[in-house]
């Protein structure tokens, strides 16, 4: 009896430690709900976050921390059924008139029609770098992982570990690259039926409201920016990144390059780098530099 009772504190300690470990990365600790008047909710002890939209308002959240480079994953399940007119966004952004931004936006559609995944990169306040894709699965049926790798050499957008887009650092060719402004993570769900679905021709059906998107399993391997300095250090940026540092110099290998080319060949539906009518004075510099 003595041995069994003495083991209780040990078991309790182990159990408590496991609870602490499990709670080290959850939505309560990593994010603040910023708007929506109760339409955004953190559930399941911080493991799940939902955003909702109705005719009165959408909702949104942002990260507590700022990052200057990172490998950021989140799982997202999009609005099922008729989501026409809605936009669910997940992006990184800095502040100011010459802000940097890295965008995932999910444009809703009529029931049975595919979502459009819209991506963009802003540097020093300039965007106009849109690429759009269909997905090779139903993003409303289950959670899928959407990732942004942002290091000093490149930005890579990935879906379930498959790269779909790479934006390289081509500052040597005069192309601004996001590398000096810390960014927070933002996400929001809002009504954009003036443009989101078929150029605004299909409007939001409010009889289907509330519309809800769900998030889970956020993970950040990142350089955290705080009080003017980076957790990675200024002299050796790869020395102390949170969660390991290999991502700071990561690049796509040949298999990943081929996988990205497959996605772009089969699922890309818009690429600013081929839109000659949009750029009559010539395509942007990054579009004409061979990889």
From TrEMBL:
* Entry similarity comment: Belongs to the glycosyl hydrolase 16 family.
| A Pfam family assignment | XET_C
Protein keywords:
Apoplast, Cell wall, Cell wall biogenesis/degradation, Disulfide bond, Glycoprotein, Glycosidase, Hydrolase, Secreted, Signal, Transferase
Question: Which InterPro entries does the record associate with it?
Answer: Beta-glucanase-like, Beta-glucanase/XTH, ConA-like_dom_sf, GH16_AS, XET_C, XTH
Enzyme Commission identifier(s): 2.4.1.207
GO cellular component terms listed in the entry, alphabetical order = apoplast
GH16 domain ranges (all copies): 21-215
Question: Where in or outside the cell?
Answer: Secreted, Cell wall; Secreted, Extracellular space, Apoplast
Entry protein name: Xyloglucan endotransglucosylase/hydrolase
Post-translation: what modifications?
A: Contains at least one intrachain disulfide bond essential for its enzymatic activity.
Query: Alphabetically, which GO biological process terms does the record hold?
Result: cell wall biogenesis; cell wall organization; xyloglucan metabolic process
Species annotation: Nepenthes gracilis
Its annotated function is as follows: Catalyzes xyloglucan endohydrolysis (XEH) and/or endotransglycosylation (XET). Cleaves and religates xyloglucan polymers, an essential constituent of the primary cell wall, and thereby participates in cell wall construction of growing tissues.
Subcellular location, principal: secreted
Q: Which residues are glycosylated?
A: 109
Molecular-function GO term, any one: xyloglucan:xyloglucosyl transferase activity
Q: Where is the active site?
A: 101, 105
Q: What class of enzyme is it?
A: transferase
Lineage top rank: taxon: Eukaryota
Q: Which PANTHER family match?
A: XYLOGLUCAN ENDOTRANSGLUCOSYLASE/HYDROLASE PROTEIN 8-RELATED (PTHR31062)
Q: Where is the signal peptide?
A: 1-24
